[in-house]
Amino acid sequence: MSDMFIATSMPDRDWWAALWPDPEGVLRALGVQPEMTVVDLCCGDGYFTAPLARIVGGRVYALDIDPAMINQARGETARQGVSVSNWIVADAREVAALTPEEVDYVFIANTFHGVSDQTALARAVADILKQSGLFTIVNWHDFPRERTAVMGQPRGPKTEMRMTPDSVRAAVEPAGFHLARVVDLQPYHYGTIFERTL
Ligand SMILES: C[S@@+](CC[C@H](N)C(=O)[O-])C[C@H]1O[C@@H](n2cnc3c(N)ncnc32)[C@H](O)[C@@H]1O
User: pTM to 2 decimals?
Assistant: First the structure.
């Protein structure tokens, strides 16, 4: 897919599940709460989409550029018995045109490092968030890749593509956000939680 962000293909489920044994706990630690309306931007095969939908009660816009990912995510949520109100096959940069209401929370995991114009994407997110809505970005820590092994092999983006919380902040705050919190997600990730200010 030509418009895909670089180095953002979906990891294999075996080591992904070993790395993230409790995706629902991660989402709760990142401030996702019942009754929120949320967007799962670049949702992949639904690994986080299903628990997200379970927490909020189904009010989820799940978007990915790859129709095969959306199909897998649909299958995964059905298998887990949770419903997702909106499935969208599209480029994340078009999210503002495709979300017909303001939402409480936008979640993007394991993808932001590959986005070419990160501030522009953050602006598109700001356009669909309610005042004081939250934008959470989950990234691999900027550890050397050889240090982030799962099931015996180094995993995650190349070392030089990894971002620090400060570099995420520098990209996102100019779009109308302030960094509210950084949450460490053991063993290799962190979440930056931004609040919309404009
Ligand atoms: C590494 S996967 C992460 C999936 C999921 N967020 C997770 O953490 O389990 C990145 C996903 O981003 C999607 N993606 C890449 N470029 C995109 C774009 N421009 N617009 C929307 N989705 C995109 C890919 O198809 C892939 O499913």
Answer: 0.98
